[in-house]
């Protein structure tokens, strides 16, 4: 994508591409799941699909990853339960997920009331004056590599996206588990 900054690794570029795509859809979006496929392999084995995705030969010739959005994630099932049902075909070398959540700064953690149900805790966080809306995009490869991108709603700009391999470790682990047999 044209506004995606150059990044050091194909996985980082894929995470930023997914982040940019989802950002273009606006906020208040459902979680979105992506398969990551090897771009060169996709061009060789499915040239018509590669053409439809705009992956002509003039595109990146080094090892690149192409994110392909999957069917909508069911809304009635917790995300971790849904991820536990996924099995990827061999052609998929990795996967990514973009999801929006509310977060509190570490300073607010001490004031979290104890013994609340999950639903009441979620409402407490939603009502907290220091809450922040964040979009987390996490991708993993079969070999174990991980990458994440975080975008705060209040700083919604491509230059304000934070990247790193361990920003959302629980979600990265859940995605990595989709490749375990």
Description:
By secondary structure, this protein is α+β, with helices and mostly antiparallel strands. Helices cover 28% and strands 24% of the residues. A six-stranded antiparallel beta sheet has the order 2-1-3-4-5-6. A hairpin with a 4-residue loop joins strand 4 and strand 5 (146-152). It is globular and about 55 Å long.
Keywords:
181 residues; alpha+beta; six-stranded antiparallel beta sheet; 6 helices; disordered N terminus
Number of strand elements: 6
| Spatial strand arrangement across the major sheet | 2-1-3-4-5-6
Portion in helices: 25-40%
Unreliable runs, pLDDT <50, ≥5 residues? 1-5
Distance between the termini: 33 Å
How many domains is the backbone divided into?
A: 1
Q: How is the biggest beta sheet arranged?
A: 6 strands, antiparallel
SS field, number of helical segments: 6
Computed structural class: alpha+beta
Pattern of helices and strands: HEHHEHEHEEEH
Q: Report the β-strand fraction as a percent range.
A: 15-25%
- Average pLDDT taken over every residue: 85
Shape: globular
Specify Rg, calculated over alpha carbons. 17 Å
């Amino acid at each position: 994508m044209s506004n995606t900054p150059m990044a050091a690794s194909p996985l980082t570029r894929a995470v930023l591409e997914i982040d940019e795509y989802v950002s273009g859809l606006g906020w208040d979006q459902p979680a979105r799941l992506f398969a990551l496929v090897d771009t060169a392999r996709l061009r060789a084995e499915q040239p018509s699909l590669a053409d439809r995705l705009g992956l002509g030969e003039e595109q990146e010739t080094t090892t690149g990853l192409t994110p392909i959005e999957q069917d909508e994630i069911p809304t009635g099932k917790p995300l971790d339960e849904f991820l536990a049902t996924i099995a990827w075909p061999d052609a998929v070398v990795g996967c990514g997920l973009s999801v929006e959540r509310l977060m509190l700064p570490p300073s607010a953690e001490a004031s979290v009331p104890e013994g609340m149900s999950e639903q009441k805790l979620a409402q407490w966080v939603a009502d907290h004056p220091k809450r922040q809306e964040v979009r987390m995009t996490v991708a993993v490869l079969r070999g174990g590599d991980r990458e994440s991108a975080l975008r705060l709603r209040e700083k919604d700009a491509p230059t304000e996206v934070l990247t790193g391999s361990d920003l959302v470790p629980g979600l990265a682990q859940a995605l990595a588990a989709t490749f375990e047999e």
